[in-house]
């Protein structure tokens, strides 16, 4: 649906040009929700704005829906842009137009008749749940309602692709959720391909199918959201992911944690369950088989794209030999296990 | 107040309204498009064009820096060419229009510049042509500011028209000078000033009302 090849963008501010994008290549499939995450200044906004040529690439090729975009200009470009909807962080609604007239705007630009416009706009207002606000002005709406108008407006020209430029960054978490749910709904109902850029990992986790991580103008990692969350490779990705799913260890535990084994101590393990194994009762299995007691210190199970991702921290109480066997057994079952450290046994009554 | 004085005041008022009305109308018709051109040809704008922008900017500045009383006399040949005479109320509208046009253009320009660049970008993303951006985004969004600018222009023109009166244009200012100053009738001058105050007040209130009606940025009920 969207093919980006060797995209480069250099901004020349005075004598020292800055490279915003360095050789970015991406392939976005029909009907998917593709996320692009990066910190501010990573170049993600420039990247998404290159897709509809609001920003002209310095080098590289972009094609949308089989049409080469990067070589277009004038009327041909305007025509191609009608197939690419866009929503913005600050909504960019016309303050002098009502909700209805804002949604009608792209149809008006395309020279459609009044009757046609009325026929197209009404179901769109219904879709985004703003039928009762049709004659209101943007200044009378909340942030979430404004973004709904933005979405309806972007859909009016029946685009094949919807670009979301930090579309939820100005909204509170609850409103963000409802807007994301609406986007997911539209993606399913209309089969619309969505490209979403954000600096918020929860947004990616909530609705994206695949994600690319952008850092300093380059794609450092890409894959399905599940892959990125459960096995992040790049350092920056790890940091993004840990914001969402790795809860920091409780400070009480960190204080007790030591790097070397203790004579009268227990091992603290982090066990990560991903995919199908997350459902097998591995914990009770090792407890029974090796006689090691596992005292759960922290744990949570997240569902990413419907697949479970568990992350628990346990204190293993037992003979060192047996504990090692437990670790091996868990590894043999394709789970990740990591020794976090050692703690003195607070409860051990018998040696 | 004598009936004669009232008659004089009414005539003066009519002449002032005629001069100011015509020249403000023409200045708005010419100045608003000029302001649009100044904005869209600016750096980084939709129809960036440095030479045009520089030349128009220079012409606007030159006109605005010429004192009105000098402009009034300097363009007498032009006035004669357009109205056929350099004396009279109709003749006074030519210099008034020429003085007010760049004034409207600058005020319109500043209102147009205040339109959020994001709106222009959104329209571009939806496939709007430069003409559509001007007529459907920039002008509608800037209207309240432009109307406020035209109101300021009308008020300034009322002041300038007193000077135009001095070259045979008539109007309230002229009346005040001829009777009040040259014939030692200060009560006439006072009456003229009172009428002018009321006129300016009325223009300003009407302009404010229209601008407020047009402005949808403030929620209804709070305006």
UniProtKB/TrEMBL annotation, chain A:
<dbReference type="Pfam" id="PF09383">
    <property type="entry name" value="NIL"/>
</dbReference>
<protein>
    <recommendedName>
        <fullName>Cell division ATP-binding protein FtsE</fullName>
    </recommendedName>
</protein>
<keyword id="KW-0029">Amino-acid transport</keyword>
<keyword id="KW-0547">Nucleotide-binding</keyword>
<keyword id="KW-1003">Cell membrane</keyword>
<dbReference type="InterPro" id="IPR017871">
    <property type="entry name" value="ABC_transporter-like_CS"/>
</dbReference>
<keyword id="KW-1278">Translocase</keyword>
<keyword id="KW-0067">ATP-binding</keyword>
<dbReference type="GO" id="GO:0016887">
    <property type="term" value="F:ATP hydrolysis activity"/>
</dbReference>
<dbReference type="InterPro" id="IPR045865">
    <property type="entry name" value="ACT-like_dom_sf"/>
</dbReference>
<dbReference type="InterPro" id="IPR027417">
    <property type="entry name" value="P-loop_NTPase"/>
</dbReference>
<comment type="similarity">
    <text>Belongs to the ABC transporter superfamily.</text>
</comment>
<keyword id="KW-0472">Membrane</keyword>
<feature type="domain" description="ABC transporter">
    <location>
        <begin position="2"/>
        <end position="241"/>
    </location>
</feature>
<dbReference type="InterPro" id="IPR050086">
    <property type="entry name" value="MetN_ABC_transporter-like"/>
</dbReference>
<comment type="function">
    <text>Part of the ABC transporter FtsEX involved in cellular division. Important for assembly or stability of the septal ring.</text>
</comment>
<dbReference type="GO" id="GO:0005886">
    <property type="term" value="C:plasma membrane"/>
</dbReference>
<dbReference type="GO" id="GO:0006865">
    <property type="term" value="P:amino acid transport"/>
</dbReference>
<keyword id="KW-0813">Transport</keyword>
<dbReference type="Pfam" id="PF00005">
    <property type="entry name" value="ABC_tran"/>
</dbReference>
<dbReference type="InterPro" id="IPR003439">
    <property type="entry name" value="ABC_transporter-like_ATP-bd"/>
</dbReference>
<dbReference type="InterPro" id="IPR003593">
    <property type="entry name" value="AAA+_ATPase"/>
</dbReference>
Automatic annotation (TrEMBL), chain B:
<protein>
    <submittedName>
        <fullName>Methionine ABC transporter permease</fullName>
    </submittedName>
</protein>
<keyword id="KW-0472">Membrane</keyword>
<feature type="transmembrane region" description="Helical">
    <location>
        <begin position="146"/>
        <end position="168"/>
    </location>
</feature>
<feature type="transmembrane region" description="Helical">
    <location>
        <begin position="55"/>
        <end position="76"/>
    </location>
</feature>
<feature type="transmembrane region" description="Helical">
    <location>
        <begin position="82"/>
        <end position="105"/>
    </location>
</feature>
<feature type="transmembrane region" description="Helical">
    <location>
        <begin position="20"/>
        <end position="43"/>
    </location>
</feature>
<dbReference type="InterPro" id="IPR035906">
    <property type="entry name" value="MetI-like_sf"/>
</dbReference>
<dbReference type="InterPro" id="IPR051322">
    <property type="entry name" value="AA_ABC_Transporter_Permease"/>
</dbReference>
<keyword id="KW-1133">Transmembrane helix</keyword>
<keyword id="KW-0812">Transmembrane</keyword>
<dbReference type="GO" id="GO:0005886">
    <property type="term" value="C:plasma membrane"/>
</dbReference>
<feature type="domain" description="ABC transmembrane type-1">
    <location>
        <begin position="13"/>
        <end position="205"/>
    </location>
</feature>
<comment type="similarity">
    <text>Belongs to the binding-protein-dependent transport system permease family. CysTW subfamily.</text>
</comment>
<feature type="transmembrane region" description="Helical">
    <location>
        <begin position="188"/>
        <end position="211"/>
    </location>
</feature>
<dbReference type="Pfam" id="PF00528">
    <property type="entry name" value="BPD_transp_1"/>
</dbReference>
<dbReference type="InterPro" id="IPR000515">
    <property type="entry name" value="MetI-like"/>
</dbReference>
<dbReference type="GO" id="GO:0048473">
    <property type="term" value="P:D-methionine transmembrane transport"/>
</dbReference>
<keyword id="KW-1003">Cell membrane</keyword>
<keyword id="KW-0813">Transport</keyword>
């Amino acid at each position: 649906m969207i093919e980006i090849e060797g995209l480069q963008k250099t901004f020349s501010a005075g004598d020292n040009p800055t490279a915003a994008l360095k050789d970015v290549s991406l392939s976005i499939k029909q009907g998917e929700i593709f996320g692009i995450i990066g910190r501010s200044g990573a170049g993600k906004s420039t990247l998404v704005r290159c897709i509809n040529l609001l920003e002209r690439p310095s080098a590289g090729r972009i094609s949308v829906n089989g049409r080469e975009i990067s070589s277009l200009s004038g009327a041909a470009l305007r025509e191609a842009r009608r197939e690419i909807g866009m929503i913005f962080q600050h909504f960019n609604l016309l303050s002098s137009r009502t909700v209805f007239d804002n949604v009608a705007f792209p149809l008006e630009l395309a020279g459609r008749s009044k009757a046609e416009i009325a026929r197209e706009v009404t179901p769109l207002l219904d879709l985004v749940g703003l039928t009762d606000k049709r004659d209101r002005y943007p200044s009378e709406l909340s942030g979430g309602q404004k973004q709904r108008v933005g979405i309806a407006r972007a859909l009016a020209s029946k685009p094949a692709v919807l670009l979301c430029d930090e579309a939820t960054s100005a909204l509170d978490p609850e409103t963000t959720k409802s807007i994301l749910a609406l986007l997911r709904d539209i993606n399913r109902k209309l089969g619309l391909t969505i490209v979403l850029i954000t600096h918020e990992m929860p947004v990616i986790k909530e609705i994206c199918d695949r994600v690319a991580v952008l850092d300093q103008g380059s794609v450092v990692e890409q894959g399905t959201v599940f892959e990125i969350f459960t096995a992040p490779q790049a350092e920056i990705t790890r940091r993004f992911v840990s914001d969402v799913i790795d809860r920091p260890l409780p400070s009480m535990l960190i204080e007790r944690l030591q790097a070397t084994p203790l004579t009268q101590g227990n091992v603290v393990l982090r066990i990560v369950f991903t995919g199908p194994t997350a459902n097998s009762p591995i914990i009770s299995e090792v407890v029974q088989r090796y006689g090691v007691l596992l005292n759960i210190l922290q744990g949570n199970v997240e569902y990413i794209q419907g697949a479970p991702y568990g992350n628990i921290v346990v204190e293993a109480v037992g003979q060192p030999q047996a504990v090692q066997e437990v670790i091996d057994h868990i590894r043999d079952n394709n789970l990740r296990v990591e020794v976090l450290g050692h703690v003195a046994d607070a409860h051990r009554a018998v040696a | 107040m004598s009936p004669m004085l009232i008659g004089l005041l009414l005539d003066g008022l009519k002449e002032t309204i005629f001069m100011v009305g015509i020249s403000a109308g023409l200045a708005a018709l010419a100045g608003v498009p000029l302001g649009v051109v100044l904005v869209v040809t600016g750096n980084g704008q939709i129809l960036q064009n440095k030479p045009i922008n520089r030349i128009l900017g220079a012409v606007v500045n030159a006109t605005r820096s010429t004192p009105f009383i000098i402009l009034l006399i300097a363009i007498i040949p032009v006035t004669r060419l357009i109205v056929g005479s350099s004396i009279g109320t109709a003749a006074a509208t030519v210099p008034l229009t020429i003085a007010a046009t760049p004034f409207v253009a600058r005020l319109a320009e500043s209102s147009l510049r205040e339109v959020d660049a994001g709106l222009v970008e959104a329209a571009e993303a939806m496939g709007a042509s430069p003409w559509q951006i001007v007529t459907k985004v920039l002008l509608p969004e800037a209207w309240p500011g432009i109307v406020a600018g035209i109101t300021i222009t009308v008020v300034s023109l009322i002041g300038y028209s007193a000077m135009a009166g001095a070259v045979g244009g008539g109007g309230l200012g002229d009346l005040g000078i001829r009777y009040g100053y040259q014939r030692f009738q200060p009560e006439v001058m006072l009456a003229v000033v009172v009428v002018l105050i009321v006129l300016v007040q009325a223009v300003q209130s009407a302009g404010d009302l229209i601008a407020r009606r047009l402005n949808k940025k403030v929620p209804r009920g709070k305006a």
